[in-house]
Amino acid sequence: MSRIAAVFLIALVTVAADIDWTKVRPIEDFDHYWTRLPAELQFLRNSVPSARVTNGREAIPGQFPYQVALVISFNQGSGLCGGSIISNNYVLTAAHCVQGASGGTALVGAHNRLNNEPSQQSIVFELDGITIHPEYTSNTIRNDVATIRLTNSIVFNDRVRPIRLPSSTDVRTFSGRIATVSGFGRTSDTSPVTSAVVFFTTNPIITFANCLDQWSNAVHVIQSQNICLSGNGGRSSCNGDSGGPLTVQEDGKSLQVGIVSFGSSAGCAIGRPSVYARVTHFLDWILENSDVDEQVA
C-alpha cells in the first residue's frame, strides 16, 4: 500500500473511542420522537423499535458484516439507531431515525462498539447526505425509510460487507420465512442501557392479516408497505434497534426484507409483532436515492 493510500485510510477511519457512548441514547428516548404523534397514537410511546434485541443471543464477531450503529446528532443530544450497509457510500435506515438530525457518525465493522476493534470504521455523515422518503409521515410512521450518504467511503473487509437487497421484480411477502433482526438495542424491557455488542434473534414473518389482527388499535398505522415479525417467545427488536435490518436467508446469503420501524408500547418482550418497512415496497426509491446498482442487488 502506498504512503498516500495509508494516510487516506487513517484519515477516514476513526476508532470507536472517538464516540462518547455515555452521551448516546436510543432515538426512542427523545421527546421530539413522540411529540410528532397525534393524541390517538400516543399509545405507541415506548413501543417503537427495541434498543437491543430482546431475548436474543450475542452474535459471533463478523456474523452481521452489514450491521451499522448510527450515532445521530440532534439539538437535544446524540441518538442511537441501527442501519445496514448497502454500498461503499450509503447506509439504509428508518426515516424516523434521522428526521430533524444535523448529521452524525456511522460505525461499521463493530462487534463490541465500546472496544477499539481492528475491523471498525467510524465515518461521519452530514445533513446534506440524509435523504428521507418525501412521503414519510411522522404522525402515522408511513414510508419510514431513509438513506445516508457518508462523507468517506466504507472500506470492505471480512467483517464489513454490504447487505443484498431484493430485485425490483420480487413481489414475495416472505410470510412464513424465518427472519433475523440484529442490533445494539436494549436486550430487555428493564435494561437501562443499550447493548455494547451485536445481538440477534429469529422468528417467523407473519401475514399482513395476522399482524393487523394483533395490532387492532393501530389499523391506521400498519399498511401493506409494512412487514411484520412474530413476537413469539418475547423475541423482538427493541429501543435502539430502530432502522436496523430484518433479513432472510436466500441461497446461503442474507437478504434484507425489512427496516425496523416500531414495536409495542406494552414492551419489547410482550409478544406482539414488531413492525418493519417492507424493502420490496421501497426498492425503487432506495435505488434512486443511493448508488446501489440493481444488477448487484
UniProtKB/TrEMBL annotation:
GO terms for biological process: proteolysis. The gene is 5570265. Coiled coil: none annotated. It comes from the Eukaryota. It comes from Aedes aegypti (Yellowfever mosquito). CDD domains: Tryp_SPc. Belongs to the peptidase S1 family. CLIP subfamily. This is Uncharacterized protein. Keywords: Disulfide bond, Hydrolase, Protease, Serine protease.
